[in-house]
Amino acid sequence: MWRLHILLLLCMSALLRSLRLHIGLINEKGTPDSDTAYNVDELEYSHAVYARMESGREVDYYSFEAEAGFVPRLMLFVTTSAYNKRGFRVSMTLTGPGIPPEGLIPPAFAQPFNIMGADYMLLQSHYAPVPQSGQYKVRVDRITGEGVYAFCVGSGEGKVSEPEMLQRIMELLVSDN
Description:
By secondary structure, this protein is of the alpha+beta class. The protein has one domain (2-175): Jelly Rolls. Helix content is 21%, strand content 37%. The protein has 3 helices and 10 strands. The chain has helices spanning 2-19, 80-85, 163-175; strands spanning 23-26, 38-39, 47-53, 59-66, 74-79, 89-95, 111-115, 118-126, 134-144, 147-153. The longest helix has 18 residues, at 2-19. The radius of gyration is 17 Å and the shape is globular.
């Protein structure tokens, strides 16, 4: 019986840890204009902004402020279902102070991931310090297909998403299957 209690405690601990991996947010309406980019702050915590892209919604912009030397840990995921069934592909480009005008496009790849019970493909990541202090923008472009993606930015764990937001994110992910 005590083994069952230990197993349950370990499972609960793993679940709580997974909920602290990032602060989940939803970009419902899209941000197709760089002047009105979806701003992400509190970069001492990791954030995952979920959004849906489809025909007619070709680009979303995100922005964040960072001090020189800060490593924002950028990642771009799509759901495995959208990747495999609908050929959904997106790409991100980082722009800002000290980055060439055409932007920095991290190398593309496809690495399977499971986060909070959902299957994803990690398409791009960039873990390098920003060269100068200022505002940075990330452009997420739809290349093919349609589906849900997650743009992740931030540097740490420890802040928990609100239960209502987690529920909305799960509903968005379920709708993508």
